[in-house]
């Protein structure tokens, strides 16, 4: 039995779908990536809180990610809470004036306790909380700042500009 009356339309339909996806892919590559450029007068300090409990295997990854940020005005506050491994020693091995590592030993457990202790050490206008096993790209802080209002000009939180400029 000849089934070409079914296979020819099905083939044409599949080719149309494939070409549509190819067009979408090529169109997306044509547009440049954008990032947030903040008003030059608004330059907030960002405090990054990282509570850590037995995270010696991953703590350096997130700390190094933040130390490579394009936005340089930040402080890192790592709270090593009731760790039984070498999290405190590993985190303290990095030497950077923006890094503060706190060893917190308490009878109580919980992330909220560690975060509340860390907040006491924050000096920033913006506080970001990250987990020790997170990873961030180099423009992470630069991009999120644009979503916060400029207190000197609330109508202008930031402007979107070409990243390659």
**Rg from alpha-carbon coordinates:** 24 Å
Placed side by side, the strands forming the largest sheet appear as 4-3-2-5
CATH architecture title of the domain at 46-149 and 156-162: Alpha-Beta Complex
Low-confidence stretches: 160-165
- On the 0-100 scale, what is the average pLDDT? 85
Shape, per Cα inertia axes: elongated
User: How many helical elements?
Assistant: 5
- Terminal Cα separation, in Å? 63 Å
Structural class: alpha/beta
Q: Report the CATH superfamily of the domain at 46-149 and 156-162.
A: Spore Coat Polysaccharide Biosynthesis Protein SpsA, Chain A
CATH topology of the domain at 46-149 and 156-162, what is it called? Spore Coat Polysaccharide Biosynthesis Protein SpsA, Chain A
Annotation keywords:
disordered C terminus; alpha/beta; Spore Coat Polysaccharide Biosynthesis Protein SpsA, Chain A; 165 residues
How would you characterize the overall build of this protein?
By secondary structure, the chain is α/β, with parallel strands linked by helices. The chain has a domain at 46-149 and 156-162: Alpha-Beta Complex (Spore Coat Polysaccharide Biosynthesis Protein SpsA, Chain A). Helices cover 35% and strands 20% of the residues. The protein is built from 5 helices and 6 strands. It has a 4-stranded parallel beta sheet, sandwiched between helices. It has a two-stranded antiparallel sheet with strand order 1-6. Helix 2 (59-67) links the parallel strand 2 (46-52) and strand 3 (74-81). It is elongated. The N and C termini lie far apart (63 Å).
